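Sample 3 of the quickstart, ligand magnesium ion:
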Amino acid sequence: MFGGKGGLGKTTFSAATAYYLAKMGKKVLVFSVDPQASLSDIFKQDIFGKGATEIMPNLYAQEIDADRRVKEYQQEIRQKIFDMYGFDKIPDEIESYIQAAGAEPAMEESAIFDEVVDIVVKGGYDYYIYDLVPLGHALYYLSMASVYDAWIDKITGLRQQMREYDQVAAVIKREKEIDEDAILNELLYIKERINKSSGILTDKEKTAFFFVVTPEDMIIKDTQKAAELFAKFDVPLSGYVVNRVLPPELKEQNIPEYLKNRMAMQTHYLDVINNTFKGEIRAFVPEMERDVTGLPMIEKMAKAMFGDF
Ligand SMILES: Nc1ncnc2c1ncn2[C@@H]1O[C@H](COP(=O)(O)OP(=O)(O)OP(=O)(O)O)[C@@H](O)[C@H]1O
Ligand SMILES: [Mg+2]
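Result:
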């Protein structure tokens, strides 16, 4: 996983890492839940909402379309109502309730969470690269696993108790034992999926979380705070990748005052980064001559991150 504040290079590093691993012969899926479709932009291919799409041999990319997933949920709910009550049309009050629920931010978040769990639990790749949304949000998704888990525990517990009462009542009334509780089973199924996926996300052997940081005051400070929060959620922090470092060889050239000042500023904040994230810096990545889109630039970025291959 690559995390960090907005616009620092998460998508760029995700794509470049996926490219590198694919070139090393690993089957890789790079995916995001970003509605901005930034993987489509970087690979110059429209993959939004199209499932895992092959970009080149071994390299697959996927962008989750949360809106569509919400619509599918709404349809599932309608279908359940048809099946359970035998209506031929959803009553108006219920339809407006379904519409309102679809506009809930929580519904979209749960749809996204559900798809991510699907991807991770399904398997089929050697590596998964999760191109995260900016920090605050990413933390929210990660924390959802534990929130969901606590919530489901509670409901499952209640459900189990109710079922026992029902069975006692049934025995007293000498009725046959009640059918399996469909809702309880559904909850247990969701719980198992959450446990499995959050187990993978927090597994230090299998998962690595990298922070992207740039040599700037505010960004260093915010990253430090975020790292403390992430650690609380047992996210396996694996280090920092420093982006947009002005190439030091510029110093030997005749450069304008403006650039000299920028370089002096960076030199100072690179020192701060070295002191703050001592021993945990995985790479310094230069500012490139242009933005990173298309496979040739992605390859250049991968070589800057991993060395020549
Ligand atoms: N080292 C670099 N040199 C030149 N351009 C870069 C470099 N790193 C990133 N960029 C460019 O900066 C922009 C932002 O990068 P990117 O989209 O990877 O950030 P992000 O962290 O994913 O942003 P968001 O928070 O919006 O998801 C892109 O246009 C990308 O091409
Ligand atoms: Mg991005």
